[in-house]
């Protein structure tokens, strides 16, 4: 006899679960806890199987009968309703796992395992955060070129053309990760290559006149701020490495006896380890610095915490305090100064200068054979450059 809502509500729990039937295979199971669960019993290919519909009263009697009727219709069509339900659940999970935000997180996790630099990870987080805000809750297969372009246009409208370009590249990287994972087949950012305003290429400002550069070196020696900041500026001038590589340097990377600084691959822009010869002038500065920060991890710790390196704004800020604005000189500009004056000297192999700057040859085969070359010349180059700086600072460059 068919059940009624009153009967179901009045069913009392027992020590063991028990069933009360409705009709056409539908029944409710009453658990010892008092919960009431809908099930349907059916047979397919001679085997008895069971289908679950959920709990009463969340699933009413009328809804349970509707679900039973749908399952019986599938049986009549030769389908197994239990397998259909499993497949629908699997597809739903696939959709949930394929939303852009989840794939972006997976891409970031992959990049982290590959040992990307902290600065790169922070920038990636920031860029993809804008994309996630725009369409992160959508399945990646539903993210179209117009959707991506709308996100990019919002960035572009603020005049941030370089950021828009980089954001397009990061979104494309997530799509390529998804393509490799078999989640999607196309990258909608490919069609947007020519849709954005091209950012104007602006070289980092640098002083390349020896007399003017000598004036800068004298200003650095008179710097009234933190001693560690003054030493960092001097080391930037002598070693010509990227500001981020210097300010994040750890004492463990330096062998002062062998006069070498070995920067590990994970901290290098091109993900390759880089060795830097240390001339006598650099060694003198490092020994002075070791008396100040040698008990910590970083050469240039933050003023707020010895566990963090100096802020990325510190060195440019120091140059501004010395009276050099962003159109005259930047922390990164010391590299351009070195490259320009070392090349103009005509004393050194241009490839040795490029290797000193950790610039990677675009020719992979040539790079493999050149990896160990130029070291001895680079040691002589480093000594010459440090001596040349002493001369320009004194006002008498050769």
Brief characterization of the structure:
One of its GO terms (biological process) is DNA integration. The protein is built from 16 helices and seven strands.
Unreliable runs:
362-371
Order of helices and strands: HEEEEHHHHHHHHHEEEHHHHHH
Biggest pleated sheet: 4 strands, antiparallel
Principal-axis shape equals elongated
The total of helices stands at 16
Task: Kindly describe this structure.
There is one protein chain. By secondary structure, the chain is α+β, with helices and mostly antiparallel strands. It has 3 domains: 5-85, 2-Layer Sandwich (Double Stranded RNA Binding Domain); 100-192, DNA polymerase, domain 1 (Orthogonal Bundle); 210-394, hpI Integrase, Chain A, CATH 1.10.443.10. Helix content is 51%, strand content 10%. It has 16 helices and 7 strands. The chain has a 4-stranded antiparallel beta sheet with strand order 1-2-3-4. The protein is elongated and about 110 Å long. It starts with a helix and ends with a helix. Residues 362-371 have low confidence and may be disordered.
Please give a handful of descriptors for the protein shown:
7 strands, Integrase_DNA_bind_dom, 398 residues, four-stranded antiparallel beta sheet, 51% helix, hpI Integrase, Chain A, DNA polymerase, domain 1, alpha+beta, 16 helices, single chain, DNA binding, 3 domains, Double Stranded RNA Binding Domain, three-stranded antiparallel beta sheet
């Amino acid at each position: 006899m068919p059940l009624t809502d009153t009967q179901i509500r009045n069913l009392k729990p027992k020590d063991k679960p028990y069933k009360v039937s409705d009709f056409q295979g539908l029944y409710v199971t009453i658990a010892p806890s008092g919960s009431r669960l809908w099930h349907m019993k059916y047979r397919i290919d001679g085997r008895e199987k069971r289908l679950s519909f959920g709990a009463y009263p969340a699933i009413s009697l009328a809804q349970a009968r509707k679900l039973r009727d749908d399952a019986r219709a599938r049986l009549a069509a030769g389908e197994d309703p239990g397998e259909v339900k499993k497949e629908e659940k699997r597809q739903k999970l696939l959709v949930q796992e394929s939303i852009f935000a989840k794939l972006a997180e997976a891409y970031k996790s992959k990049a982290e395992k590959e040992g990307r630099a902290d600065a790169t990870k922070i920038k990636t987080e920031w860029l993809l955060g804008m994309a996630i805000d725009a369409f992160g809750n959508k399945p990646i297969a539903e993210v179209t070129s117009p959707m991506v372009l709308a996100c990019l246009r919002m960035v572009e409208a603020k005049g941030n053309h370089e950021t828009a370009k980089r954001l397009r590249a990061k979104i494309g990287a997530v799509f390529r990760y998804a393509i490799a994972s078999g989640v999607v087949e196309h990258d909608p950012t490919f069609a947007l290559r020519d849709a954005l305003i091209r950012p104007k290429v602006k070289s980092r400002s640098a002083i390349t006149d020896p007399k003017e550069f000598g004036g800068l070196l004298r200003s650095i020696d008179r710097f009234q701020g933190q001693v560690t900041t003054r030493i960092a500026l001097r080391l930037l001038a002598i070693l010509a490495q990227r500001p981020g590589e210097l300010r994040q340097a750890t004492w463990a990377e330096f062998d002062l006896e062998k006069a070498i600084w070995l920067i590990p691959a994970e901290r290098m822009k091109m993900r390759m380890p880089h060795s830097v010869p240390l001339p006598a002038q650099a060694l003198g500065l490092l020994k002075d610095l070791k008396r100040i920060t040698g008990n910590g991890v970083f050469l240039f710790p933050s003023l707020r915490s010895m566990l963090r390196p100096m802020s990325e704004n510190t060195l440019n800020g120091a140059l501004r305090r010395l009276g050099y604005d962003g159109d005259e000189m930047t922390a990164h500009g010391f590299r351009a100064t070195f490259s320009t004056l070392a090349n103009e000297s005509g004393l050194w192999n241009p490839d040795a200068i490029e290797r000193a700057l950790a610039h990677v040859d675009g020719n992979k085969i040539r790079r493999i054979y050149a990896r160990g070359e130029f070291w001895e010349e680079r040691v002589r180059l480093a000594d010459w450059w440090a001596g040349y700086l002493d001369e320009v600072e004194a006002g008498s460059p050769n």
